[in-house]
Amino acid sequence: MAPSHESIVIVGAGIVGLNTALVLAERGFGKLITVVAEYLPGDTSATYTSPWAGCNFSAISGTDANALRWDRLGYAHLAKLASTSGGEAFVERTPSIEYWDEVVPHDKIEFMSGYLEDFKILASTSLPQGVSFGVSFTTFTLHAPKHCEYLYHRLETQYGVRFVRRRLPSIEAVFLDPESTKVVFNCTGLAARSLPGVEDSKCYPTRGQVVLVRAPQVNTNIMRHGKDYETYVIPRPRSKGHVVLGGFMQKGNGDASTYASDTASIMSRTKALSKEIAQAEPEILNVAAGLRPSREGGARVKRENVSVVGKGRTLVHNYGAGGTGFQAGYGMATDAVDCIEDILFEIGRGSRARL
Ligand SMILES: Cc1cc2nc3c(=O)[nH]c(=O)nc-3n(C[C@H](O)[C@H](O)[C@H](O)COP(=O)(O)OP(=O)(O)OC[C@H]3O[C@@H](n4cnc5c(N)ncnc54)[C@H](O)[C@@H]3O)c2cc1C
């Protein structure tokens, strides 16, 4: 069967599916990919996490070897994007400060200090009350919904990736044509918990509420990691002074409603954290809640052999990014694509044979 758009199918058009398509397209497979998703960039839904992200690169991710590697690859990817096409990609270099009250992941910070631009440990005398450790570095901030739309457009126009809007009833149904679909990437985010054929009981939602404000005086990304709270101020690139204020990390909470009490808590914590926010009363533009696709043990990036109508096929899981899909998504995608090099070689050979 000659390679076609059905050869590689990616289910999911959140940041993880889009980055998976990007890594494959950069290796020359764009015209052999179909992305199938119920929600596409530009849509909003409680079951589509990506548009609700803050969104920045931070030290919030896990401390295991995978998380460290994915972050490093993600940081390098964002650095390149910001340098070459930051404007159209809605990615910007931004000065950043991160504080920890108690639990400081020192080993991870030491690893990250090897690649973060302008990394510094802050003098203990300069730390706010209650903070035990702080660092500054240059981070990347993203306009999450616009960045997803940028990737969608780039994948279609530059690389010839095909997008299809469809809700699939099971993972098996993702093999669009059992004859020609050689590999499927499962990038379904939180839906991996309930999608027939996957039903991963390790997946759970982590609720976050954010407040979008207008505060053009804000230039610095700032975060405070507390024992039971997470406070952050993230300026949004190319948004005429919009800033995302947060937030919450409510493990196991799948409630996508917003609450006035949460908004009040975010406003008072961010005013205390950021001198730039405290300078002038910010105008509230929107309040939203999103559900991070978390997973016990971290994201699942794993190849699996499956049988579809009697034929051996390959399924690559790539989900469970939790609160790090934008910073780690490119790294996760790199691992997901690397694990099917043998299949890509065969697909590539078939594709060249047609020419
Ligand atoms: C408040 C908040 C703040 C955040 N801040 C940051 C941040 O600063 N930095 C950062 O890196 N990350 C941040 N995140 C986390 C980030 O948003 C997620 O890690 C990321 O969006 C997960 O992307 P995903 O592609 O796995 O899932 P999703 O974006 O949910 O995409 C899943 C896709 O799968 C599709 N799908 C699912 N089931 C089916 C089916 N049966 N048939 C067809 N299609 C299906 C959906 O339609 C969708 O297209 C934040 C999240 C929240 C909620």
From TrEMBL:
Recorded hits in SUPFAM superfamilies, A to Z, give: FAD-linked reductases, C-terminal domain (SSF54373), Nucleotide-binding domain (SSF51971)
Recorded hits in InterPro entries, A to Z, give: D-amino_acid_oxidase_CS, DAO, FAD-dep_OxRdtase
Which keywords label this protein? FAD, Flavoprotein, Oxidoreductase
**Cofactor(s) the protein needs:** FAD
List the PROSITE patterns.
Answer: DAO
Report the superkingdom from the record. Answer: Eukaryota
FAD dependent oxidoreductase domain span? 8-334
Annotated Pfam families: DAO (PF01266)
The entry sums up its family as follows:
Belongs to the DAMOX/DASOX family.
Matching PANTHER family: D-AMINO ACID OXIDASE (PTHR11530), D-ASPARTATE OXIDASE (PTHR11530:SF11)
The protein, known as: FAD dependent oxidoreductase domain-containing protein
Q: Which organism is it from?
A: Aspergillus keveii
